[in-house]
């Protein structure tokens, strides 16, 4: 019985998420434009991740083994 109640409560809470567009709080404004920018970014632009923040994954599979190249910086300690 308790798992069923917990499930109902969890399902009820999933509908509590905000479905409205994000806006600054009343009386507040968006952050100032970054240095060198010509305009203040919109909320959508601020929430969009750049490729540097979310790099693409490389799924290239190795089809045959390959020798590693030498590492010039793998030096013994002094």
Automatic annotation (TrEMBL):
Residues 19-78 are annotated as: Disordered. It comes from the Bacteria. Residues 39-55 have a biased composition (Polar residues). Residues 1-18 form the signal peptide. The keyword Glycosyltransferase does not apply. Residues 56-78 have a biased composition (Basic and acidic residues). Keywords: Signal. This is Argininosuccinate lyase.
